[in-house]
């Protein structure tokens, strides 16, 4: 196989996390995304109050993601050796921040739907 | 080749952002119709990857694999086990779980190869005829090649040996852990033969040194690296970088030292040097034995008949096509291949498609231009949390997969992440014929 196909990529991710965990994570991500879209469509507008809390949660999500990756890979901030490492670190933090923000917004909307809806 | 490599490492990175640029829809793989009987010797990394690829590459082929081993070892994990970063079972799976269902597995070792009569005889005397023979036996760790050394010494009296297997790697960690608690003289070396992953002896020296620094015992210790020739690594630019790191870390080094004898009672290793035998005392050492071809290849007509590898017995194949120089229906892949570089899993990944395409062309009566350029890769760990992603080819050129992004001679966290998280996954996907 000369080309890196989508199937190959899936195969590697299955190997990293184990088939069960990988697809469970894909399912959770899909459910959260769908729930997010659901509340957006249901409420027909973004609740800026909820969005504010979601934004406030972002740093926690970012830091948690970085610490999680460092813990499972037995590394720390001293191991940053070059610019590419800084980008990886920021990337991990960004994914954690956005993920938690979406989760927080969606949970708030599901638990406390707008009163006048 | 370069885009191929980038894709492979894109996978290893597990970085969808980087990999996404290389992702394309699954192309239709060519298949060759044949009723040929392919016999594979060895179900390690190379043999297993071949078995899974042949099944999809050749339509109608019969495949037989010959190997007595029930356990499959992920050997790149041994260094991590021996550094206390992974448990011994991290590297252990079963041969059976990787093999395709529609193949015949003879659970015996090969005892004799008859390339004239095109057959292999197993240890029980069973004769297996072949049309194409893929030699992927791996190599033999020749511990008897060091006087006084034996496997039962590993894990006590300051003796470790990372290569011997997952359990021995774990015992090596126990001993290294004990040693680095109190400090002393740590002695590292490598054999003068060809060897698998020539970066591993260096990695283990760096990791032991790192533990002493972290535990505060480095100041009362001495670390010595005794190189087997005049360099630390076959690629000069990498060797020079290693020298710089050794000096920075205050690791002593000496050249032209080949371990020939070990005295566990006195804790002294004897080295052959151009000026005669020299003794070096140690409190901890990682013994790496000479490496040679298994007897079934070494004592067969397949082995090199002249030149520096006569004693070591590697299969005499063309370094580009991996086809045997005297028997065109025989190919060697992995550690057993008598080529100048590439006794690593990364090399296997590049060699397997070459052997397949060369065979396919041969069956179709064509000539293939697909060649192996000696590519291999070594995530050279320089401490826990950092590694250098060294990639190179036959010509000692550095062949970075991400030039300008991941510098080959820089100690980086991202290179460590690849080794720690993604390499085993990529290896497993390779075994299944999917990477």
* Class derived from helix and strand content of chain B: alpha/beta
What would the average pLDDT of chain A be, to the nearest integer?
87
How big a fraction of the residues of chain B is strand? 15-25%
Strand adjacency order, main sheet of chain B = 8-5-3-12-23
Shape, principal axes of CA atoms of chain B:
globular
Strand percentage of chain A: under 5%
Distance between the termini of chain B: 14 Å
Biggest interface pair, counts: A-B, 30 and 43 residues
How many discrete domains of chain A?
1
The coarse overall form of chain A would be: globular
| CATH top-level class of the largest domain in chain B | Alpha Beta
SSE succession of chain A: EHHHH
| Number of E-state strands of chain A | 1
Could you describe the largest sheet of chain B, including whether it forms a barrel? 5 strands, parallel
Helix content of chain B: 25-40%
CATH topology of the largest domain in chain B: FAD/NAD(P)-binding domain
* Helical stretch tally of chain A: 4
Q: Class by helix and strand content of chain A?
A: mainly alpha
């Amino acid at each position: 196989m000369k080309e890196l196909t989508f199937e190959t990529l899936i195969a590697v991710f299955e190997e990293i996390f184990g088939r069960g965990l990988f697809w469970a994570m894909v399912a959770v991500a899909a459910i959260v995304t769908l729930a997010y879209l659901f509340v957006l469509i249901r409420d027909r507008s973004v609740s800026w109050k909820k969005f504010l809390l979601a934004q406030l949660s972002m740093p926690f999500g970012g830091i948690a993601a970085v610490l999680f990756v460092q813990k499972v890979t037995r590394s720390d901030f001293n191991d940053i050796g070059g610019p590419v490492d800084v980008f990886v670190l920021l990337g991990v933090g960004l994914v954690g921040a956005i993920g938690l923000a979406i989760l927080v917004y969606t949970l708030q909307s599901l638990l406390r739907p707008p009163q006048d809806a | 080749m370069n885009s191929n490599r980038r894709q492979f490492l894109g996978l290893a990175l597990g970085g969808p952002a980087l990999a996404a640029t290389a992702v394309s829809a699954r192309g239709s793989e060519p298949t060759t119709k044949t009723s040929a009987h392919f016999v594979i010797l060895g179900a390690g990394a190379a043999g297993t990857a071949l078995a899974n690829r042949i099944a999809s590459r050749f339509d109608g082929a019969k495949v037989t694999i010959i190997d007595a081993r029930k356990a499959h070892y992920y050997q790149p994990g041994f260094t991590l086990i021996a550094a206390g970063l992974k448990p011994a079972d991290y590297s252990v799976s079963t041969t059976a779980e990787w093999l395709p269902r529609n193949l015949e597995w003879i659970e015996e070792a090969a005892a004799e190869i008859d390339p004239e009569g095109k057959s292999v005889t197993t240890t029980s005397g069973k004769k297996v005829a072949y049309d194409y023979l893929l030699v992927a036996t791996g190599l033999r760790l020749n511990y008897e090649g060091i006087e006084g050394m034996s496997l039962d010494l590993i894990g006590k009296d300051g003796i470790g040996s990372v290569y011997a297997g997952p359990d021995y790697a774990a015992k090596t960690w126990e001993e290294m852990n004990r040693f680095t608690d109190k400090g002393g003289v740590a002695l590292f070396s490598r054999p003068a033969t060809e060897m698998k992953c020539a970066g591993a002896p260096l990695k283990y020296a760096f990791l032991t040194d790192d533990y002493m620094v972290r535990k505060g015992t480095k100041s009362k210790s001495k670390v010595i690296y005794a190189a087997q020739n005049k360099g630390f690594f076959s690629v000069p630019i990498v060797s020079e970088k290693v020298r710089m790191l050794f000096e920075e870390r205050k690791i002593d080094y000496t050249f032209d030292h080949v371990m020939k004898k070990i005295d566990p009672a006195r804790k002294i290793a004897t080295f052959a040097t151009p000026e005669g035998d020299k003794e070096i005392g140690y409190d901890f050492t990682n013994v790496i034995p000479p490496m040679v071809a298994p007897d079934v290849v070494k004592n067969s007509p397949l082995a090199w008949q002249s030149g520096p590898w006569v004693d070591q017995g590697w299969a005499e194949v063309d370094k580009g096509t991996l086809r045997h120089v005297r028997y065109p229906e025989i190919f060697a892949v992995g550690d057993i291949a008598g080529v100048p570089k590439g006794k690593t899993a990364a090399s296997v990944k590049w060699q397997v498609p070459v052997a397949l395409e060369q065979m396919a062309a041969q069956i179709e009566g064509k000539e293939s231009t697909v060649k192996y350029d000696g590519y291999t890769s070594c995530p050279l760990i320089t401490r826990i949390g950092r590694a250098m992603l060294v990639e190179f080819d036959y010509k000692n050129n550095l062949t970075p997969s991400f030039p300008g992004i991941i510098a080959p001679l820089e100690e980086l966290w991202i290179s460590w992440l690849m080794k720690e998280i993604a390499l085993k996954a990529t290896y497993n996907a390779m075994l299944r014929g999917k990477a």
